[in-house]
Amino acid sequence: MGLTLLFSLVVFFCFSGVSSSSQYLTSMFTLGDSYIDTGNAPVMFAPVMPVWIDNPPYGQTFFGHPSGRFSDGRVIIDFVAEEFGLPFLPAFLAKSSNVSQGVNFAVGGPTAIEVGFFERNNLVPFKLVNNSLDVQLGWFEEIKPSVCNGTEGYKDCFSKALFFVGELGVNDYNFIWMSGKTEDEVKTYVPKVVETITTAVERLINQGAVYIVVPGNPPTGCSPAILTFRMNPNKTNYDHIGCLRDVNRVARYHNMMLRAAVSSLRGKYPHARIIFADFYEPVIQVLQNPSVFGFNNDVLKACCGSGGGAYNWDPNAICAMAGVTACENPATYVSWDGVHYTEAMNRFIAKGWLNGPYAQPPIKSAVRL
Ligand SMILES: *[C@@H]1O[C@H](CO)[C@@H](O)[C@H](O)[C@H]1NC(C)=O
Ligand SMILES: *[C@@H]1O[C@H](CO)[C@@H](O)[C@H](O)[C@H]1NC(C)=O
Ligand SMILES: *[C@@H]1O[C@H](CO)[C@@H](O)[C@H](O)[C@H]1NC(C)=O
Ligand SMILES: *[C@@H]1O[C@H](CO)[C@@H](O)[C@H](O)[C@H]1NC(C)=O
Prior knowledge:
The chain has helices at about 1-15, 40-45, 75-85, 115-120, 135-150, 155-160, 170-180, 185, 190-205, 225-230, 245-270, 280-290, 345-355, 365; strands at about 25-30, 100-105, 160-165, 210-215, 275, 360. By secondary structure, the chain is an alpha/beta fold. One 2-acetamido-2-deoxy-beta-D-glucopyranose binds near residues 98, 100 and 101.
């Protein structure tokens, strides 16, 4: 039964997306982290550290060169933009771009909660770059006058725009885990992360946003990097896939609270279309049934990495460092560099958010009036 259902989903994904009938959206504005960054991180990080993603093999699959994305090709919002006939979103920090059809504020490494909170509470073992959600909202507010110039008030300006707020939270929890906190301690920060995301969504709605996608967290306990950092000999800490149970429990707890928060927002702002995008289930589905979706069975191995073993990930020799190359066929891998997904995985997630079943409601049904 399970397989039949999965096959019909695959067929559905293959045929949907062929016609991009809906030209309804005028623009996209996206906030988030490295999963959807399209070039902000290289600008922001270049002055303080080497930027590996500016080297091949990043970008090799689609762009043919590094594109500022943390992947071999397109990221989730690229597939969404394509679906609506919009250009790939320029990165805000690249400045030179024409932002009339939207701009991407997402950047590698941000927390949802403002960075000062982590510093004041000793929740991070190193200095954070100041690029959290509130900073990204500030960037949005900074360019708003130029985007909306000529329109009567901001409300009309964004009524046909699609916003993304997230994914966020993965970095908050990763940093807190890395500072040595227990699972129960990490969980105590979930309400604050969710509230920060909720407040950001409200701030956008108050400025005229109507269509807003709020993605949850992926199963970070299945990422080759986290699996390597938190490797331990106790088998009961791993699930049937080989993922870390504690890290994934925090992700699921976050998702449950965020889903509930989105539901309350819908009640509070009935005119808005707030979409909860499930980032957890599509990844788990592929990890559990890789061959059904065209992926290989080494689902916990990074395509671009070194070190071999179960995860092919070595923090001292990561993707694009000297001598570290990509696998033969990235399209059959889930993880590109041990932290971020391959274009193939990003496409699967994007289609699931656009058409269902991994978004409530699916983006395409939400924006078609
Ligand atoms: C920006 O792009 C839009 C649509 O592609 C176009 O209509 C507009 O003239 C452009 N503006 C500038 C300043 O290039
Ligand atoms: C981060 O940047 C924002 C906006 O530029 C600023 O208000 C805030 O004080 C900064 N936070 C830190 C910790 O530097
Ligand atoms: C708005 O447009 C007018 C005329 O096109 C221009 O003079 C002005 O500088 C623009 N303002 C902003 C904030 O872009
Ligand atoms: C293994 O982990 C489980 C659950 O985290 C714990 O209850 C058990 O005591 C651990 N076993 C060993 C040998 O450390």
